[in-house]
Write a structure and sequence with these properties.
The complex is a heterodimer. Chain A has four domains: about 325 residues, no CATH class; about 80 residues, no CATH class; about 100 residues, Signal transduction histidine kinase, dimerisation/phosphotransfer (DHp) domain (Helix Hairpins, Orthogonal Bundle); about 170 residues, 2-Layer Sandwich (Heat Shock Protein 90). In chain A, about 65% of the residues lie in helices and about 5% in strands. Chain A is elongated and about 145 Å long. Chain B is mainly α. Chain B has one domain. Chain B has a two-stranded antiparallel sheet with strand order 1-2. In chain B, strand 1 and strand 2 form a beta hairpin. Chain B is elongated and about 45 Å long. Chain B starts with a helix and ends with a helix. In chain B, about 20% of the residues are buried. The chains are: A mainly alpha, B mainly alpha.
Chain lengths: ~900, ~80
């Protein structure tokens, strides 16, 4: 055993550590370096799902029912499989409309109904208070186990540590007030709190794993040994099977538990708080969706070993299985480990209590207290309500924790941990029809939601809550056994004679049946009103509308000053002013005073207020300062039409603008190309013309010119005219090819023969330049369908280009043909200077010759562009191979029918074509 | 703010396009999980057998669970940007 002082000191040291973690995270957030802005922390904060009930109760459940502890965690697994659709939609809706609690979510969806918000809050409080009591009870009984000498019976009830439990409850209230309600925030985000919760999740997981490892490997010889010994005992072997004690497996209960926990993991106030309200970025859901179930799996891994270990270790029935996590290390003489285990349980309990208190206090403040307060006359004269809002929330936190403490104190040891938890689960599951239905079905009405919730809650109370209270000994159990007034048909656990189900499944069936039935049935009685329709459209189609095209369902007159004053009352003057300035900037107005007081501004203010006081109260407050016209259903549909039309127009406009811009750019570039082309052509024409004219003038001016010189000049004139006509021919050629008017005489071409012919043609030219041509051709190649003259033109162009650039006297040009299946590639490699990097991209453009302007070789600058056009005409492509530092290598590839086997390319390679 | 809205809209659009397949896969996985963890498929594992020294039934439950998590992780992280 441990002394009370040790346990107390450790507990309060741990709580202090929580304060430190939360304060540190808050400080980081203020410095702009948030610690909670990542998916892992988000997933860990989701693990607030694992409460003291998981920590202690799972083992207890496993000790009595084997795998029956699992459905509570398989449900969340199922829910997380759909999280990307369902949860993400909830997050988007909540973010867009500043919804900060589950009550507000439901109320906002059905026309911002204060009545609905109040009802949801009421159900939550009734359902959750026992759950909070359960956490306090877990702490108290854990304390009792630790401080009672081993072997002695535990003191009856939680009475031993009543004051300690109260102190824990109050310090948790303190924590929650400090980190949950330090200031009013329109989004209700609490960085410090979330960081602390994530930290608690790590603590409880590690503590539980430590105990599990100790039991498995410390007390037993590993899992094999543990299970082998358990299997040797018939009762324990029974726990490892589907059905126990020969009873058939209760599949319906298994299914009910799975579905129940699947709903609870989304609709429990604390889960909604951490998953939806505190979500920083909805993309975090991607990782959290699997990391959270993985956490659940990890924390459940040792539940069976601990349960079986405890059953094997202790004499049957001597120790409550709910406390195995603590009593096993204690009995084995490991008080330090027991203390660690207790801290783990404490972290599980405190995490739940803190988040639940924040979530419920927001609801109580916004959806129960504020609507009532705002009805009071004198409240409307009060200027600044921010302090009042905070005070209400703090009071609500204290009240909730005290209620929990009171419940624990009164209900005491009456009921096992698991039952209380499941009763709470069943209460919050009643939100599912109205909430999920509201997210996907536009026909739900306020009355439908109210009727469903009321019926579900009433049946839950009658079939589950009242019997559990009666069984706690506060009431006669007669009405359970015989029915109220002796009416057997109304027996709460066998309503209308429905027998054969356990009480949870029974209650869940009836309450959800009535809930869904009335929600749908009553909704179908009338058309949704204008307010309901507008909210339905905003919720169901939240992904279809972006901020720019979201319709605003409001019509009337407002003044900026009135709205600003209203916002200042609830948000504080400075913050309201800042928000208005931001909004003004967003809309392009000069300042807050210049904002046009239209529907968008009214909507903006209402949304901001909703974050602080709930959508229902926000609606009432905004309506009180503006003159608004009631919208009919037709108006709503018209506004929607206009909005979607506007969106279509703007989309079409955007598309048209983009198209126009692209077309314009293309035209401009074509125009530029044409200009370039014209100036290049004239330039190229002028050069030979100038020299012809100069020479002709010389000859005219000097009739006595020696015949020899005249002969030389005339030779130049002839050469220049030849160049001129070549240029004109090429320009015409180019134009023909480009416009598609060129004539092509296609035949089957043997490329090998064609290349040999071309090599023969340039023989003389190369010899003059002192260059050698090496042919590297296969013996044969598949026939091509092409115009042989055009192809020859291409090859000659490449060869003569190469000849121009090779160094005089030691030039070497290689002409290669490579055959691959379906393609033939011709390469012309020279040993010249290569193409400078800057010109590689330009070389195939018209009139862009290689070489700098000073020593530009003779040529028209059209050869390569024409060659490329020709190659592309035959479906091939021409390219300049990447520079390898050994001169330029041009290549073109032509497609050929691959029916004939390509000849192996190296077979006849290296045949010297032209050795000088 | 404006650019943020634009980026948001584009993100939505991109998500919308790739969402179709992801959504269908997730729903299919959900259906598979629901079937695996309920009658009658659950009963298939209820045998007197050991895997690696562990009783088959609980081991199978945890194994299926881990497989589902792995499949979910694969789907979610693969489609991610």
């Amino acid at each position: 055993m441990l002394t009370p002082a040790t346990v107390l000191a450790a507990s309060f040291a741990y709580l202090l550590l929580l304060f430190v973690v939360a304060a540190w995270a808050d400080r980081r957030a203020q410095a702009g370096r948030s610690v909670i802005g990542n998916a892992w922390v988000y997933a860990l904060s989701m693990a607030v799902y694992c409460t003291a009930w998981t920590y202690f109760g799972s083992v207890g459940r496993a000790a009595s029912g084997g795998v029956w502890f699992l459905p509570i965690y398989l449900g969340p697994m199922l829910a997380m499989l759909l999280a990307w659709m369902v949860l993400r939609k909830m997050i988007r809706i909540a973010r867009t409309y500043r919804i900060t609690s589950i009550a507000d979510f439901v109320a906002s969806r059905y026309g911002k109904s204060p009545l609905l918000a109040g009802l949801v809050t009421l159900i939550t409080v009734v359902g959750i208070v026992p759950y909070i009591a359960l956490q306090l009870k877990a702490i108290a009984s854990g304390y009792a186990v630790l401080t009672t000498p081993v072997g002695q019976p535990l003191p009856a009830g939680g009475a031993t540590w009543t004051d300690g439990t109260l102190a824990v409850a109050l310090s948790l209230a303190g924590f929650t007030m400090v980190f949950g309600t330090r200031h009013l925030d329109g989004t209700e985000r609490h960085e410090g709190m979330v960081a602390a919760i994530a930290f608690e999740s790590v603590v409880k997981l590690l503590a539980f794993l430590a105990v599990g490892a100790f039991v498995t490997w410390g007390l037993f010889g590993g899992p094999g040994d543990l299970f082998a010994r358990a299997l040797a005992v018939p009762e324990l072997a029974d726990l490892l099977r589907l059905s126990q004690q020969g009873k058939p497996f209760a599949y319906e209960q298994w299914f009910a538990l799975t579905v129940l926990s699947m709903l609870s993991v989304i609709f429990l106030p604390r889960q909604f708080q951490v998953m939806v309200v505190e979500n920083v970025d909805e993309r975090h859901l991607r990782r959290a969706a699997w990391a959270f179930p993985a956490y659940l799996l990890a924390i459940n891994l040792f539940v069976l070993p601990i349960a079986l270990g405890g059953l094997l270790y202790f004499p049957r029935g001597s120790v409550n299985a709910d406390t195995f996590v603590l009593s096993l290390p204690l009995a084995a003489g490991q008080p330090a480990l027991a203390l660690v285990a207790f801290i783990g349980g404490l972290s599980a309990a405190t995490g739940m209590v803190i988040v639940e208190a924040i979530a419920v206090s927001t609801m109580v403040c916004n959806d129960l207290v504020m609507p009532l307060l705002l009805r009071l006359r004198h409240m409307n004269r009060q200027r600044d309500l921010t302090r009042l809002l905070l005070a209400i929330r703090r009071a609500a936190i204290v009240a909730i924790l005290l209620l929990g403490y009171l419940y624990y104190h009164l209900a005491g040891e009456a009921y096992a941990l698991v039952s209380i938890g499941l009763i709470s689960f069943a209460a919050v599951a009643q939100f599912a029809p109205a909430l999920l239905g509201g997210m996907y079905w536009k026909g739900g009405t306020r009355e439908g939601a109210l009727a469903g919730l009321l019926a579900g809650f009433a049946l839950w109370t009658y079939t589950l809550m009242l019997p559990s209270i009666a069984k706690s000994g506060w009431w006669h159990t007669d009405f359970i056994e015989q029915g109220p007034f002796g009416l057997a048909l109304l027996r709460p656990e066998q309503l209308l004679g429905l027998a054969g189900l356990d009480n949870l499944t029974h209650s869940l069936f009836w309450s959800l049946l009535a809930n869904v039935g009335l929600y749908v049935g009553v909704s179908l009685l009338r058309r949704p009103s204008a307010a309901e329709t507008s909210q339905a459209l905003l919720f169901v189609d939240v992904f279809d509308r972006t901020a720019t095209a979201r319709p605003v369902f409001w019509r009337g007159r407002a003044r900026v000053d009135d709205l600003l004053a209203l916002a200042a009352r609830f948000l504080g003057k400075a913050r309201a002013q800042r928000l208005f300035e931001e909004h003004a900037r967003e809309r392009g107005a000069a300042s807050a005073a210049h904002i046009e007081p239209d529907a968008r501004l009214v909507h903006f203010v209402e949304t901001q207020l909703a974050g602080a006081i709930g959508s229902a109260s926000a609606r009432v407050m905004v309506a009180s300062v503006v003159e608004e016209e009631a919208l009919a259903l037709d108006d709503v549909l018209r506004i929607l039409d206009e909005a979607s039309q506007l969106r279509r127009y703007s989309q079409a406009l955007e598309q048209a603008t983009a198209d126009l811009r692209a077309a314009n750019e293309r035209l401009e570039s074509l125009d530029r190309l044409k200009d370039d082309f014209m100036s290049s052509v004239t330039h190229e024409l002028r050069t030979p013309l100038t020299s012809i004219r100069a020479l002709a003038e010389l000859m005219v001016d000097d009739p006595d010119m020696p015949a020899e010189q005249r002969q030389q000049f005339l030779g130049i004139v002839v050469a220049e005219t030849e160049r001129l006509s070549r240029l004109v021919n090429q320009v015409l050629d180019m134009a023909k090819i480009e416009s598609g008017h060129a004539e092509w005489h296609n035949t089957d071409v043997d490329l090998v023969a064609l290349l040999r012919q071309a090599a023969q043609t340039v023989h003389e030219l190369l010899r003059e330049r002192g260059a050698e041509l090496v042919l590297d051709l296969p013996a044969q190649a598949p026939l091509l369908r092409a115009d042989p003259d055009r192809l020859t033109q291409v090859v000659l162009n490449l060869l003569s280009n190469a000849a121009k650039f090779v160094p005089p006297g030691r030039g070497r040009i290689e002409l290669r043909l490579r055959a691959a299946p379906g393609a033939l590639t011709v390469e012309v490699q020279d040993n010249g200077p290569g193409v400078p990097a800057a010109q590689r991209a330009l070389i195939f453009e018209k009139f862009r010759q290689g070489g700098d302007a000073a020593n530009r070789p003779q040529g028209t600058g059209l050869g390569l562009p024409i060659s490329r056009q020709i190659v592309e005409h035959f479906g091939g492509r021409m390219e300049l191979r990447p520079d390898t530092g050994q001169g330029a290598c041009f290549a073109f590839t032509l497609p050929c029918p691959s029916t004939t086997d390509p000849a192996p390319s190296g077979a006849a390679a290296g045949q010297p074509g032209d050795n000088r | 703010m404006r650019t943020w809205v634009r980026a948001d809209a584009r993100l939505d659009e991109a998500m919308h396009r790739s969402a179709g397949l992801l959504t269908q896969r997730l729903v299919a996985l959900f259906a598979a999980a629901l079937l695996l963890f309920n009658f009658p498929l659950l009963a298939l594992w209820d045998r007197e057998a050991l895997v690696l020294g562990l009783p088959l039934f609980p081991a199978a439950l945890f194994g299926l669970w881990a497989l589902l998590i792995a499949a979910l992780a694969w789907l979610m992280e693969r489609h991610g940007d």
